Amino acid sequence: GQQLNQSPQSMFIQEGEDVSMNCTSSSIFNTWLWYKQDPGEGPVLLIALYKAGELTSNGRLTAQFGITRKDSFLNISASIPSDVGIYFCAGQRGAQKLVFGQGTRLTINP
Amino acid sequence: DVKVTQSSRYLVKRTGEKVFLECVQDMDHENMFWYRQDPGLGLRLIYFSYDVKMKEKGDIPEGYSVSREKKERFSLILESASTNQTSMYLCASIAGGLWTPMNTEAFFGQGTRLTVV
Description:
The complex is a heterodimer of chains A (110) and B (117).
Chain A: E1 5-7, E2 10-14, E3 19-24, E4 31-37, E5 44-49, E6 55-58, E7 61-65, E8 71-76, E9 85-94, E10 97-100, E11 104-109
Chain B: E1 4-6, E2 10-13, E3 19-25, E4 31-38, E5 42-51, E6 54-57, E7 64-70, E8 73-78, E9 87-94, H1 101-104, E10 106-108, E11 112-116
Parallel strand pairs in B: 2-11
Antiparallel strand pairs in B: 1-3, 3-8, 4-5, 4-9, 5-6, 7-8, 9-10, 9-11
């Protein structure tokens, strides 16, 4: 089955640093979504992007829907300890199918 | 708030056992999904259902079946558990219907970590 290429697979950063991760695909999507999964929990939606070129912020998080509709990035500014977790991108064409990236595991050194 | 509840957080089963994983959502969503999550592989779709008694295979359906007798409940069945089915299993639901941002957001349960020994 199709999957998105998400990178990096893991990041080890110092508290206060900025974080950047991205997803690419060979296929076009109508919606790009970014989820965060805390240890032992299910993923929770952080940001949803619905139009090519759209740039959306949610607090310290900023995400963009690539103009080609085949990629997206997520930035986290001034990281804090509670940002630790696994971040997943997901592409969506309709309500019935979400395609996920492999995840980026973020570890923060205090 | 939408609530998706999976019946167990942790399960340990023996090889060859029949295993049932249950998922219930409380928002009358049309679409429900079962994923498995493995390190480095992300979330892979096992099966999904877009209506009561309707189901479609996802990317990795082998060794699994599903049941959706009521709209709020979607069950994943491992007919004969094997050690390579040890994984984290995640259930999700999406409202569906006419396209709106709210109708396309996926809500996840807390996950069931299954170990087959």
